[in-house]
Amino acid sequence: MKSFTYERAADPAAAAAQAARNPGARFIAGGTNLLDLMKLQIEAPVHLIDVNGLTLDDVAATNDGGLRIGALVRNADLAAHPQVRRDYPLLSRALLAGASAQLRNRATTAGNLLQRTRCPYFYDPQQACNKRLPGSGCAAMGGFNRNLAVLGASDKCIATHPSDMAVAMRALDARIETVRGDGSTREIAIAQFYRAPGDTPHLETVLGRGELITAVVLPPPLGGRQIYHKVRDRASYAFAIVSVGVVVQPDGHVRVALGGVAPQPWRVEAAEQPRADARRIASRLLDGARTTEQNAFKLPLVERTLAAVLDEARA
Amino acid sequence: MTDVKMSRRSVLIGGAVSAASVAATRAIGAHAAEAVTPSPAEAPAISTVRFDVNGRAVTLTLDNRTTLLDALREHLHLTGTKKGCDHGQCGACTVIADGRRINSCLSLAVMNEGAKITTIEGLGTPENLHPMQAAFVRHDGYQCGYCTSGQICSAVGMLAELRAGMPSHVSASLTDTPKLDAGELRERMSGNLCRCGAYSNIADAITDVAGSRA
Description:
The structure holds two protein chains of two kinds.
Chain A: E1 5-8, H1 12-21, E2 25-28, H2 34-39, E3 47-50, E4 59-61, E5 67-70, H3 75-80, H4 82-87, H5 89-96, H6 101-106, H7 109-113, H8 165-171, E6 175-179, E7 185-189, H9 190-193, E8 212-218, E9 225-231, E10 242-248, E11 254-259, H10 278-285, H11 298-314
Parallel strand pairs in A: 1-3, 2-3
Antiparallel strand pairs in A: 4-5, 5-8, 6-7, 6-8, 9-10, 10-11
Chain B: H1 8-27, E1 46-53, E2 56-63, H2 68-75, E3 94-97, E4 100-103, E5 116-118, H3 120-123, H4 131-139, H5 148-163, H6 182-188, H7 199-213
Helix pairs in contact in B: 4-7
């Protein structure tokens, strides 16, 4: 691990200002992803701003009947929160499908959104990776890419976003609240939060330098049947090959978001035709997919998983 | 000659104490975390952290890079907590921080200011074992023993989560009170690997303790 200086932040705006002033600074909260990457020197911040002391760990009702989730709410606490279990079961289920209990006890809401890809070439400094070292190439293209992206990728990067939680947040139309280095605040719809990799796969979100996530806000509960189904190589503690989150309403309206297939949680609102079967929804959802020989199986897997989930939701 | 009686462990501890005193010397003038200004050229950057380990207040001045795991093992000589993968994948380093089980390898020591840490040494003693420790002995819940302290701390944390009503991935209902069955136990303990494959006896030990508390 490279040496770094360290401070404990006392105020969100001050933390953002400090990070904006120092290009080599990173925020640290749970640390479950950043510290792992620092040990491998894939991340090498010169300064860490510990945000754990900020009071951003509340879950509170909003005026319109939604829920404001503090950036520091731990994944375990969010999954177990009574109101989330009752009103946003998709979110609870997605969180519980991710990582291990130990990791969920430390990983935070904001950190989960910002976690880096688990592409094996990103993790191996000996390999070319445009995300880790811009311009160095992509060893995944001609390599072991069975679990990499089939949608929304580019010819520079086919990494996937690994989060389960973000898939639920995308289906629920979450909004992300931030504070910037100049003290101003803004709100970003999760649909606009992640950047397509294009020629700059190292730039993953629209956050500016020093911009700190302070909360994630959910609109009022949607009701309906909410199911999160994660397909993986082992029954627990593994990243998704494909995951499908749905909200199905009694009147036939449906929302579908996918994980494990793209550099961001994947949703195509135009595919969500009321009462449509899995084949019809999947054909729109997977429109424009680009597969390799190894990961082409993800397309029929998405359709079949969606069919099973819709059957269950509509039963 | 006294050297003859010196065990490998005491040699290791002696070495670690020397290293700690070097770090302490370097710390003079660096009172708290904020006293260190960003300067990549000046290595190593150090900070002071205070937390409670097994009921004992400790103050450590450490290289910022020191994980909680290394602080426990190398600085406090609590070697019961093991380093397996050092990347949060195996669970051997599991300790209980403020009542929650965590991977101590994925937490910087300096991030634990004010925390209450319980390690395997704080759960029980050889003369007065914690019920989970006694159950692992009774059920032979190990072969080589390397994952055992992590398994035991994790199991204690897991039963606390269960008592708090926290659901899991395999819970049929998110709102009913979860009950520990074989499926729940496997899912909730999936963050702890045992390469010897002593899982069936580990599960028996945990089930025994859970049953006696129900």
